[in-house]
Each structure stands twice: as C-alpha cells, then as structure tokens.
Write a structure and sequence with these properties.
5-stranded antiparallel β-sheet, 8-stranded mixed β-sheet, 18 strands, alpha/beta, about 400 residues, 11 helices
Length: about 400
C-alpha cells in the first residue's frame, strides 16, 4: 500500500534509533502484535508488565510507516463535535468516550515519563477557532457541553483572539492542557521499554499468511522469510495497511499534506505556542516542535490514488505556507520537509476495534481519525485489558458494530 511520499522530519530527530533483528526461527507466543508503528508499540507497552509471552513483527523498521508522518497533536476533541455525535450514539456513550480520551492523554504522559527515551512530550493549550461566522453557534454549544464535563477551557470572542494573536477569528474554544509529542521517538521509546521487559521485537519480518488452527486453538502466522509463529491471540496493529488484511466498511481514506519548516528564532507572537485548528472542512492545523520548527498540515483532498495525491504535493506545500503567512505575517518560514499521505477516518467519528467471525482470537486496531495517537492509546488499553482479564466493558463502544445507546 502506497501510504505516503515526500520528506520526513521526525526520523531526523532520532538518527541513532535502536535496531532489532529479523525473525530467524519459528516461534510460539501468547500474543503476537503485527505492526511496529505507534499502535503496535502502545499495545506492546501495555503488555510489557503482564505475565504473557509477547512478540512484535514489523515488515520494515520501527516507526517507518504512518508514524513518520503523524503530526501528533494530542487532543480529546476531534473533527466531529461531541454534540453532533450525541445524536448518533446517545449522551451516556459520548460522555464515556470523552472521559476515555482524556484518560488516554494522561496515560501517554505517564508512559513518556516511564520510558528511557525522551519522547518530547509537552502539555500545550489548543485554539479551536470558528472558520466563519456561521460556525460560532455550534462552537458555543460544543463549549457548553465540554464545560459541563469538567474540561478546562474558555470561550474566546473575536476581541479576545485579536488581543492574543496576530490574526482574527469570530470565536474560538481555548482548551487547556492538551499536548504534543514526537511520535517517532515515542514509538521507539515504547518498543524499547517492551524489549527491556522481555518482549521479542523483530524488524524486516513481514507476514504473508495466517490461519486459525481449531485443534490447537491458535493462530498460525507465516512470514516472508520462511518462518511460522503460533499465537493464542493476534493484534493487527498495522495502521492503514490493516485494511489490506481485513477491509472495514466504516473506514475511508483521503489524502492529506504536511509541511515542516526551518527552525524559527522568534515565536513570541504565537501565544503560548498553542496547537491551532479550525471548524472548516478540510481544516488547517499547526503546532511547533522542540527545536522551534512549525508543522502546518491539512488541506485534505478526496483523491485515493497515490499518483494523483503526490502530483498535488508542491501546490499544497505552497498553499500551506501561504495560509500560515496570512495568520503569522511576521514569522518568516521556509519549508524544509513536506509530504503527502493517506489519512484514514471513520464514518461516525469513533475509532474501531475490529473483531470478525472469520478471524478468531484476533483484534484489528483501527485508530483512524484526526486524534490517531490518542485513539491508539485508548484502543490499546482496551484490547490488552480484554486479553488479560477476559473481558473489558468498554470494548463494545469501539467494535465495528457499535451499539446505539438510548438518547438521554
């Protein structure tokens, strides 16, 4: 699957990242994680302190897929407003979902403090602005819902925004204590933690077949380098490539674009270095990095053809810089890294844990959506709890066939 094209900033921040061997023998384990990106790493992290025998296989190298293009804004709010999702799922459902998202950000922070490798985790506030006057009313409604559920935020008027930023918007939700992270270093940090706890990690080990052995009650995976792995459970944490193993009808793709600039000497005009995004669809978003670069992303395109996606990269790069210059005219930037990539979402705005009859003892982790790192943390915790405890009540909220709870 041709996921992305261009130049990638995150791997340059960790040039001496750990390397792991390819699988050179048959093996047996309790849990096999397929995928060495952030989702697989988060599952491995949660399993590292269990008594289970766990292995991870990655067809390339750790963090080399979509993790390298992840912009890693850590927020509980997403592109579908909670107030709109209530109409589909009911109030109790969405209240629980919101709480689990907030918990996931806390757990990412806790994990970043628990590992050896610096993940560049920082708490950051968020400015979520109305892109036009017509969006103010829905933004205010969302603010009121979040305020009722103990979210720390403020509603900003046009005058408030103009007093803090060099640009103007009709209104915005200002959220406190969201976060940002370096997704490449975070993924490596979690895998390193798991490896130190005895989890076996294999790079350059690609699955090329799998089946369920009823007699043994185990999944049998074959690899391209000629070995087999027997496992009681499989977690397919292959990101978007998981759709090549089992297509999920609730998920779909668009193309997205990202620019990472040169380091900027003076960011004083950028109030609190907030995470910034907006209500428009497709939306524009931006953040800063540890070394004072600016990541600008968005301007999604509906094409799902790699050649078409990539042909638009230069135009989109220039447009992203142009949009940034409109907002921060005195901050001079040059694009140093820029990329195009597929971006997966779900029809209802809720990420998916796929459990399918034809794949016994298997979990598909589809953390699709604009909060992918947060969704991955949430889903990883649920999957691991379900394996260890034999049951996790929150699992039903994220299965591909989600229940529509009574509205209240």
């Amino acid at each position: 699957m041709n996921l992305q094209s261009g130049t990638y900033y995150w791997p340059t921040t960790f040039p001496d990242a750990p390397l792991y061997p390819a699988l050179e023998e048959d093996l047996s384990c309790d849990v096999l994680i397929i995928g060495g990106g952030s989702s697989g790493a988060q599952c491995a992290y949660y399993l590292a302190d269990s008594d289970l025998d766990v292995a991870v296989i990655e067809k390339s190298t750790i963090g080399s897929g979509s993790t390298s293009t992840n912009t890693a804004l850590l927020q509980y709010s997403g592109e579908k407003m909670f107030t709109n999702m209530i109409n589909t799922f009911g109030k109790g459902y969405i209240e629980r979902h919101l709480q689990l998202l907030k918990d996931a950000i806390k757990e990412i922070e806790a994990a970043s403090k628990n590992v050896t490798i610096d993940c560049e985790f920082n708490r950051r506030d968020t400015l979520y602005s109305a892109s036009c006057a017509e969006d103010v009313e829905s933004l205010k409604k969302e603010y009121e819902f979040l305020k009722q559920h103990n979210c720390e935020l403020t509603f900003l008027t046009k005058e408030d925004i103009e007093a803090k930023y060099p640009f103007s918007r009709d209104a915005a939700i200002y959220s406190y204590n969201d976060a940002e992270i370096n997704p490449f270093r975070f993924t490596h940090a979690l895998v390193d933690y798991a490896a130190r706890k005895g989890i076996r990690i294999y790079e350059n080990t690609e699955m090329n077949g799998h089946h369920y052995d009823k007699q043994q009650g185990k999944k049998i995976v074959s690899t391209k380098n000629g070995h087999t792995i027997q496992a009681r459970y499989i977690i397919f944490a292959a990101g978007y490539e998981g759709m090549e193993i089992r297509k999920e009808k609730k998920a779909s793709f668009v193309s997205t674009y990202t620019v990472t600039t040169n380091p900027v000497e003076d960011l004083s005009e950028w109030y609190n270095r907030t995470l910034i995004w907006e209500t428009a669809r497709p939306y524009l978003y931006m953040r800063t990095t540890r070394d004072n670069r600016i990541i600008i992303g968005g301007l999604d395109d509906n094409t799902t053809y790699p050649e078409d996606r990539d042909s638009k990269l230069i135009h989109k790069k220039n447009k992203l810089i142009e949009e940034f210059n409109k907002m921060f005219p005195t901050i001079k930037v040059q694009p140093e890294y820029y990329l195009s990539a597929f971006y997966g979402g779900t029809a209802d705005g809720i990420p998916i844990i796929g459990q399918y009859e034809e794949y016994p003892n298997s979990y598909f982790l589809f953390a699709f959506g604009d909060n992918g790192t947060v969704y991955s943390q949430l889903l990883s915790r649920i999957i691991v709890n379900d394996i260890i405890e034999g049951n996790c009540p929150d699992l039903a909220l994220y299965l591909q066939e989600r229940p529509l709870l009574n509205k209240g």
